[in-house]
C-alpha cells in the first residue's frame, strides 16, 4: 500500500507500521473474502432453498428473485421502540424496499440485532451486559446474513455497542458491500450543561428526585440520538469519516424529508456498488488500514468517546488489521482538537452540525494532511466527496453542495489554525499500574496532573456510601477495581461522575483510576480508565491499598504508584470474588464471555484470530 505523499509524516508513519504489523493477517483476510466474492451464492442454492428465501415476498419481488438477475439487498436492523435513537428505524424498511424497487432491485429484512441503552442501564446490573452486547450483535449480524441470498447489505444502527457490533459482523461477510444508515440526533432539548448542574445538585442533596427526573426528561425528549457527544454520536462521526455513510448523513434529524431522502439515496447507492455493476465495493477491502487511521484522527479531533479505544481495535481485528493503543497515542500528538461538544463544551451535536459539521471537519483535517484522502468510500474513491453536504432542491430532489469553508460558531467548531488544543482529546497512560486511557478534552489543563492518596473501592455503591457519609475532605484518587471485562463485563461507571464533580468543585484535587469504563460520561474529572491488566487477572490495580500515593499524569502519559519499590514488588494483589456479579438480569448467560474475553487494549472482544 502506498501512503500519499501529502499526508502528515506522523500519520504516514503510524499507518505504515500498522500495514507492516498487519501484513500477514490482513492478507489472509483478503484472500478469504476474495474466495467468496463473485456470483451470488443464492444462484447456487437448491430450488427449495431459494423458494424459502422469497416465499413471503410480493409477486413482483418474487418474480425478480426467482429470475435471479437483479441485485438483492439485505437489511440488518437494530430497531426497537424503546431506544430513542432506534425508534425512527421502524419506518426505514418500507422506505428501503420502495427505493430498491425503484432502482431495479429487491430488499428484505435479513434479521434483527439487539440494541440496549447504556442510559437506561447505567448504575444497574444490566450495564454488565453492555460491552458484551457488541459481540452478540456481531454474531446476530452473521446469523442474519448466513442465508447467503444478498448482494449487499444496509445496516440500521446508531448507538453505543450497536454500530461496532454491526461493523464486526459486516466484516465477517467482507465480500458484501455495506452502507450504514443513521437515524439522526433528536432536536435540542434542555442544554447539556444545565442537565449536568441538576445532576450535581441532586448528588449534593440540593434538589429532589422530581427535579432530577424533570431535567432528564427535558434533555432526552424525543426520537433520535441523545444530543451529547458520547459513543452514539462518535459512532456517526466515525461511519462518515471512514466512508460508510453517505456524505453529510450523520447528523440530520429524524423524520424529516431530508432524512428520508438520504435513506433512499443510501439504498440506491448500496445497490449500485454490488458485484452486478461497475463499482463493486466490498466492505472488507474498503475498510483498510488508512480508513482506520482516518477514524482515529477523527476521534481525537472531536474529543470522541473513550469506548472507541476498545471498539476500533476490535473492528480492525475483524478485518485482519492490528491496532494498538500506541497508534492512538502517537496520532493524538498531531491531531488537534477542533470541536467542543458536551461533555467537552456546552454545545450539542445539532450545534456542531449547524456550525459546519462533518464537511468542515473533514475539510480542515484533509487540508492539514491529517487524513488519507485517497481511500475508498461507499460514495466512490476519495474523501473529497465528504466536503459536500446534502440539501433538498425546490422539487424535493436530493442534491449536494459544497460545505462551508468557515466555522459558523468558533466556540463549537474551529479550524486547524486555531484549535481548542494542539493535541487530541485522548491520551494513553503507562506505568507501574499498567496501561490506561484518559480523556483530556473536557478536563481543565491545571487538572491534567493529579497526585494524591488512594481510596480503594470495589463497587460504585461503596463509593457513593462513603461520599454520602462525608468521608472525603482532602485530595484523593478514587480507585475502583474489579470492573474489567473478565470481572463483570466492564460496565460504564456513570454514577461516579456527579459526586466526583462535587468534590472537585469543593476545591479538592480528585482523579479516578479504574479498570472499568466511562465513555461519553468522561467529563471534567480526570479519569484513568480501561486499566489493563485488570484487577480480576491479578493486574497491578489489585495491589493498591488505601493511602498509597497515586500519580495520574496526562501530560507525561504516566500512571504511577509512589510507594517503596520493595514493598510494591512483594505485595500480593487482592483477590477478586468470582461469586460476585454472576447471576441475575441474564448475567449467568454471559459466563462464557467473561471467561473468553480479551484484554482492554486488544479490544475486550471474545473473538480471537478472526482473520485466520
UniProtKB/TrEMBL annotation:
Pathway: Carbohydrate metabolism; Entner-Doudoroff pathway. PROSITE patterns: ILVD_EDD_1, ILVD_EDD_2. It comes from the Bacteria. Its cofactor is [4Fe-4S] cluster. Residues 71-384 form the Dihydroxy-acid/6-phosphogluconate dehydratase N-terminal domain. Pfam families: ILV_EDD_C, ILVD_EDD_N. Keywords: 4Fe-4S, Carbohydrate metabolism, Gluconate utilization, Iron, Iron-sulfur, Lyase, Metal-binding. It catalyses: 6-phospho-D-gluconate = 2-dehydro-3-deoxy-6-phospho-D-gluconate + H2O. Residues 412-604 form the Dihydroxy-acid/6-phosphogluconate dehydratase C-terminal domain. Binds 1 [4Fe-4S] cluster. One of its GO terms (molecular function) is phosphogluconate dehydratase activity. InterPro entries: 6-phosphgluc_deHydtase (IPR004786), Dihydro-acid_dehy_C (IPR042096), DiOHA_6PGluconate_deHydtase_CS (IPR020558), ILV_EDD_C (IPR056740), ILV_EDD_N (IPR000581), IlvD/EDD_N (IPR037237). Its EC number is 4.2.1.12. [4Fe-4S] cluster binds at residues 159, 226. SUPFAM superfamilies: IlvD/EDD N-terminal domain-like, LeuD/IlvD-like. Catalyzes the dehydration of 6-phospho-D-gluconate to 2-dehydro-3-deoxy-6-phospho-D-gluconate. HAMAP family: Edd. Belongs to the IlvD/Edd family. This is Phosphogluconate dehydratase.
Amino acid at each position: 500500500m502506498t501512503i500519499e505523499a501529502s499526508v502528515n509524516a506522523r500519520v504516514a508513519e503510524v499507518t505504515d507500521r500498522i500495514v507492516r504489523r498487519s501484513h500477514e493477517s490482513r492478507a489472509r483476510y483478503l484472500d478469504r473474502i476474495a474466495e467468496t466474492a463473485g456470483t451470488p451464492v443464492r444462484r447456487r442454492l437448491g430450488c427449495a432453498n431459494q423458494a424459502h428465501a422469497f416465499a413471503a415476498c410480493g409477486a413482483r419481488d418474487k418474480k425478480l428473485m426467482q429470475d435471479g438477475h437483479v441485485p438483492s439487498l439485505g437489511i440488518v436492523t437494530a430497531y426497537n421502540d424503546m431506544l430513542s435513537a432506534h425508534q425512527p428505524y421502524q419506518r426505514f424498511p418500507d422506505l428501503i424496499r420502495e427505493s430498491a424497487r425503484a432502482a431495479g432491485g429487491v430488499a428484505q429484512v435479513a434479521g434483527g440485532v439487539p440494541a440496549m441503552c447504556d442510559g437506561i442501564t447505567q448504575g444497574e446490573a444490566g450495564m454488565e451486559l453492555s460491552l458484551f452486547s457488541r459481540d452478540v450483535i456481531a454474531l446476530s449480524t452473521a446469523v442474519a446474513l448466513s442465508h447467503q441470498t444478498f448482494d449487499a447489505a444496509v445496516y440500521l444502527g446508531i448507538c453505543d455497542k450497536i454500530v461496532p457490533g454491526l461493523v464486526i459482523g459486516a466484516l465477517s461477510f467482507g465480500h458484501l458491500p455495506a452502507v450504514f444508515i443513521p437515524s439522526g440526533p433528536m432536536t435540542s432539548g434542555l442544554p447539556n450543561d444545565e442537565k449536568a448542574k441538576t445532576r450535581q445538585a441532586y448528588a449534593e442533596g440540593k434538589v429532589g428526585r422530581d427535579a432530577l427526573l424533570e431535567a432528564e426528561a427535558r434533555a432526552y425528549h424525543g426520537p433520535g440520538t441523545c444530543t451529547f457527544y458520547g459513543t452514539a454520536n462518535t459512532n456517526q462521526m466515525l461511519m462518515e469519516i471512514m466512508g460508510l455513510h453517505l456524505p453529510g448523513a450523520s447528523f440530520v434529524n429524524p423524520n424529516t424529508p431530508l432524512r428520508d431522502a438520504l435513506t433512499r439515496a443510501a439504498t440506491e447507492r448500496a445497490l449500485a456498488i454490488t458485484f452486478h455493476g461497475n463499482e463493486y465495493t466490498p466492505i472488507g477491502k474498503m475498510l483498510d488500514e488508512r480508513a482506520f487511521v482516518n477514524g482515529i484522527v477523527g476521534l481525537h479531533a472531536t474529543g470522541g468517546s473513550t469506548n472507541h479505544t476498545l471498539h476500533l481495535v476490535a473492528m480492525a481485528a475483524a478485518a485482519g488489521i492490528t491496532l494498538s493503543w500506541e497508534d492512538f497515542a502517537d496520532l493524538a500528538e498531531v491531531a488537534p482538537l477542533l470541536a467542543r461538544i458536551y461533555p467537552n463544551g456546552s454545545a450539542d451535536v445539532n450545534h456542531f452540525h449547524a456550525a459546519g459539521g462533518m464537511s468542515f471537519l473533514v475539510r480542515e483535517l484533509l487540508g492539514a494532511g491529517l487524513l488519507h484522502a485517497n481511500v475508498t468510500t461507499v460514495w466512490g474513491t476519495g474523501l473529497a466527496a465528504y466536503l459536500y453536504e446534502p440539501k433538498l432542491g425546490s422539487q424535493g430532489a436530493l442534491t449536494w453542495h459544497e460545505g462551508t469553508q468557515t466555522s459558523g460558531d468558533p466556540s463549537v467548531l474551529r479550524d486547524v489554525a486555531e484549535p481548542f488544543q494542539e493535541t487530541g482529546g485522548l491520551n494513553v497512560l503507562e506505568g507501574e499500574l499498567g496501561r490506561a486511557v484518559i480523556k483530556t478534552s473536557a478536563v481543565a489543563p491545571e487538572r491534567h496532573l493529579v497526585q494524591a492518596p488512594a481510596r480503594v473501592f470495589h463497587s460504585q455503591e461503596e463509593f457513593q456510601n462513603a461520599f454520602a457519609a462525608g468521608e472525603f475532605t482532602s485530595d484523593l484518587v478514587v480507585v475502583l477495581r474489579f470492573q474489567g471485562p473478565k470481572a463483570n463485563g466492564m460496565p460504564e461507571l456513570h454514577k461516579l461522575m456527579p459526586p466526583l464533580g462535587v468534590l472537585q468543585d469543593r476545591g479538592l484535587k480528585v482523579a479516578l483510576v479504574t479498570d472499568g469504563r466511562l465513555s461519553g460520561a468522561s467529563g471534567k474529572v480526570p479519569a484513568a480508565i480501561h486499566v489493563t491488566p485488570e484487577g480480576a487477572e491479578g493486574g497491578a490495580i489489585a495491589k493498591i491499598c488505601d493511602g498509597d500515593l497515586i500519580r495520574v499524569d496526562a501530560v507525561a502519559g504516566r500512571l504511577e504508584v509512589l510507594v517503596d519499590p520493595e514493598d510494591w514488588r512483594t505485595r500480593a494483589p487482592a483477590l477478586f470474588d468470582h461469586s460476585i456479579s454472576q447471576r441475575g438480569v441474564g448475567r449467568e448467560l454471559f459466563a462464557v464471555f467473561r471467561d473468553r474475553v480479551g484484554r482492554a487494549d486488544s479490544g475486550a472482544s471474545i473473538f480471537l484470530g478472526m482473520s485466520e
